[in-house]
Amino acid sequence: MTARDEHRWRLLLDAVLTLSSGRDLDELLTRIVEVSRDLAGAQYAALGVLAEGERRLRLFVTDGISDEEAALIGPRPTGRGVLGLLIDHPEPVRLHDITEHPQSYGFPPNHPPMHSFLGVPVRTGDRIFGNLYLAEKIGGGDFTEADEEIVTALAAAAGVAVENRLLQEERERLAVFEDRDRIGRDLHDIVIQRLFAIGLRLQAGMKWTDDPRLIERIDEAVDEIDTTIGDIRRTIFELGTRPRSGDLQTRVTRLVDRAAGSLKIRPTLAFSGPIRSAVPPEVAEDVIAVLREALSNTARHAHAGRVAVELTAGAEVVLRVRDDGVGIAADAVEGGLRNMRERAAAHGGRCAVTAVEPSGTQIEWAVPLS
Ligand SMILES: Nc1ncnc2c1ncn2[C@@H]1O[C@H](COP(=O)(O)OP(=O)(O)OP(=O)(O)O)[C@@H](O)[C@H]1O
Ligand SMILES: [Mg+2]
Questions:
Q1: For strand 316-323 and strand 361-368, is the pairing parallel, antiparallel, or unpaired?
Q2: C-alpha of residue 301 to centroid of ligand 1, in Å
Q3: 162-185, pLDDT tens digit by residue?
Q4: For residues 19 and 41, is the Cβ–Cβ distance under 8 A?
Q5: Ligand 1 within 6 A of 49 CB?
């Protein structure tokens, strides 16, 4: 092994060790660029990272050009010319003279002269993250096949580093969303429902008094509760709570499956119409909330032997939940049912609770689809 070979091996080993240390991406990429320049014996090296899903370079790390020189050259390349060629055809390219390539876009003024060129894609498997470029083989001459091989290996290492970073960013983003989802859901399913119940209890209490001052105070309290519910709804909206995963049909199926546990019977389930495509997300959220309440009522109050759930999408989306239980007492105080009516009214729809013969209850909740 010659001293030069030994040097190369040490550099390569060094680069791999750097990659497994938990440094940040910029630092890793800078190191890779330095090492590739050294290993391939180039005067200049650069690594361009593509903006995700775009044809544009979002990051361009260079080595061999001082900050002052870089400032004189002006804006970083965005991916035209030969650099663009590599983006469109992610295969190694070796050129004797980059300026003579038909795709050459020319260099901006103050750009150091570059002739010999080696470019390889930064990729893992099918995913292309960018390219690693080398220019001006030191001592003249062209880049060799051996240079290409070693730089390709480094580019693969860079690919792993970039992929790692993207995965990490994705995980962090998901963690934030999950938190927001959970907070939004708790506010919606627990806090708002409780406030509703308190408001109803206060209103029901009014019949026990003729004292106008007390009635006025109760009215004020109920109004305040309504305002608070409005505030919370806005907060939920601002949290940007995403609809829970899955399309409406999948979610309805999941919910019914889960309800089978508390009902001790398995509801029948029927779908018709283009539910997946025709029901907008805001309405889908309400369909889920209404179904959840209807199934919970059936489990708690109906003592039913059969429950049927039906969801139809056409001119309107219609949810029907029918049971053959004891039926709703005439003097029942509404909690969740009122919430269902409000959810329908908010979309210009309707909600009907009817008795089923010979016994049982049917909820029909419908909202027009425009
Ligand atoms: N499927 C049903 N079968 C029989 N009775 C029902 C059924 N659904 C509702 N009820 C009756 O109607 C009442 C009002 O229902 P609603 O969902 O509005 O309130 P809740 O279930 O009592 O309380 P909340 O929904 O606020 O937890 C219930 O208390 C119950 O007596
Ligand atoms: Mg209820």
A1: antiparallel
A2: 6
A3: 887 777 777 777 777 667 777 887
A4: no
A5: no
Measured CA to CA, the distance from residue 186 to residue 198 in angstroms comes to: 17
Helices (H), the chain: 3-20, 25-40, 67-73, 81-88, 145-186, 192-205, 212-238, 248-263, 275-278, 281-297, 336-346
Q: Which of 263, 296, 297 for a ligand 1 pocket mutation test, highest count of atoms within 8 Å of Cβ?
A: 297
Tokens of 236: 């939920």
- C-alpha–C-alpha distance, residues 80 and 92, integer Å: 17
What superfamily would CATH give domain 3-169? Answer: GAF domain (3.30.450.40)
Q: What six digits make up the tokens of 219?
A: 């009215």
pLDDT of residue 28: 80
Q: Is 328 in the pocket of ligand 1 (CB under 6 A)?
A: yes
Give the three-state DSSP class for 2.
coil
> Which residue out of 291, 296, 301, 309 has the highest number of ligand 1 atoms within 8 Å of its CB and is therefore the one to mutate?
301
Q: In Å, how far from its chain's centre is CA 142?
A: 46
| Tokens encoding 288 | 């889920």
Q: What is the pLDDT of residue 255?
A: 87
- Specify the 3-state DSSP secondary structure of 333: coil
Task: Specify the DSSP class assigned to residue 266.
Answer: P
State in Å: Cα 335 to ligand 2 middle.
6
Are 364 and 354 a contacting pair, CB within 8 Å? yes
Q: Residue 242 and residue 100: Cα distance in Å, rounded? A: 52
Q: Nearest residue CA, atom 26 of ligand 1?
A: 335
Domain ranges in the chain? 3-169, 172-238, 248-368
pLDDT for residue 116 is more than 80: yes
Look at residues 252, 257, 314, 324 and name the one whose alpha carbon lies nearest to residue 284. 252
**CA distance linking residue 298 with residue 51, whole number of Å:** 52
Tell me, which fold does domain 248-368 have in CATH? Heat Shock Protein 90 (3.30.565)
For residue 98, the number of C-alpha atoms closer than 13 Å in the C-beta half-sphere is 25
**pLDDT, tens digit, 9 for 90 and up, residues 51-86:** 777 777 878 888 888 888 888 887 777 777 777 788
Nearest to 61 by CA among 34, 90, 21, 24: 34
The model's pTM is 0.47
